[in-house]
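Review form for a predicted model. The reviewer records the input and the model, then writes brief findings.
Reviewer: anonymous (R2)
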Amino acid sequence: MARWMLPVLLVAGQLLYWPGLPLLDHDGVSVPAAIVVTGACLLSGAALGWRRERPLPALAGVLIGNVIAVLAAPGRPQWVETGDATAIMAIFAIVALFSVAVHAPARLLPAAVAGAVAEQAVTSVVQDGEPGVDWVYQAQAVVASLVLYGLVILLGRRRRRFHAERAEAARRLDAARRAHLGAADTERRRLARELHDVTAHHLTSIVVNSSAAEMLGDQRPELRAEALDFAARTGRETLDALRRLVAILPATTGRDDTPSLGDLADGFRALGQRITVELPDGDPPPERAAAIYGIVREALTNTLRYAPGGHVLVRYTTTELLVEDDGGGAEVTGLGGGRGVSGMRERAQSLGGDCTAGPREGGGWRVRAVLPGADGTVRTAYPWLRGPIGASAALVVLLVLVQAVIMVADEETLPRTAAALILLAQIAHAVPLLWRRRSAWWAFAAVALTGLLGPLLVQPGPVPAKYGYLFLFSCAVDLAAIHAVAVRGARPGLTWLAVPAGAGSVAFVAAVLLSLDDSDPELALNGMAERLAFVAVMTPLMAILFRPPPA
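Model under review:
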């Protein structure tokens, strides 16, 4: 049912947008046109339901449905621009193209983009509605659609890589677990053989000699003394063999009896080390405790050997283990043959991760193990660029660039002061998204508050009221904040509150900005209605569109 949620919401949003609202407003609606548009919308929605299993046919069905809807769309209702009666159906094509990028081979992407651009060109010509075709405008529309669809393809391929890396990490982790279990079984069988060889041979010899001495004792009394001597000697050999066997057994099972990292640190503190332990996610779970404990023990042993008395930091999260020291005031030299590092790397690889060790900037030594997270993913190199921070920064830069492009494309020349203030306000509005992964609710609250910068700048006069509409394009930031709350917000049962709160915030800002622009009251009313309808449909869609797949 999850795959049908998005198509159902899109279809419901389009049918509410047109012909639903015009019918409620008693606007003249052609019944045949409404039937055709409704059928085309249902066709696109049904095709979108198969976007994962059959991405390219789903895209073709969506494009065909969109073209039919645009051709059948009537003249505009009172508050809808010409041709925009099917505006929400444009989202169908974006979602379908994204699914092609995620689930289809790369060789099919050019055909998918070409089909989407062709559909956009056809609908643009139909929506133009002029007797002659403005080819310059149509060329600009094609270029804009290429840029948009290119961005969708890039996001889709990134999502595909995420799925592939996640599946590969899960496969490696499963293989490591199977290998660990297989090694444990092999070791148990080897120990069973050793135990059998030690006990069976020696004890059988004792039994045989003792029985023979008892049977022949009357005839050969000297055998009793020899049997006792043999039994004593063989018993001592058996005890020595059992001691050697016990000595090679693992000291712990690697699970419930593995000490905590805090207890391990206390032992090294007693030897003079200054150790700080940070466990944001608590102690390691039992299935990985033994390997992590072994890495930390080896790393702390090295710090005791090469940085005595130094300060040591031990930090463990679900995806990273870090042990670093400050060098203890001495140069870090003579680090041995590297067997300890190899052992730490093998332990990390048994969990599906990897371990590196080397000099620390500013002196000292650092051991860092990258581990698979709870969802099976492994962080890649350059986390500042490809990790959550880099993704958040890229999103902020993209949103700000979109706003800058919109300002440059404005038909009138913006005063420099007004342009600078608008751009700074948009930057301040988008920057809280940097914290959307760590504190989704606080980032959402900050986005809502910074959204008020638009009305505050327009009301006193630094930004002319006629340019206030430029602030309305920043609703993409609000949608991203709502999406962050839906995916990462605390108390999942309450995350739905972000939808009405976000829509209400955007609606309030839009109402204030458009009411301040008295140059064209009818245009202000129409524009506010369009944007409120857009936000009302998009806010729940953003909450589910990029939700992580179930583990």
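Findings: The longest helix spans residues 135-215.
Further findings: DSSP finds 18 helices and five strands in the chain.
Recommendation: see findings above.
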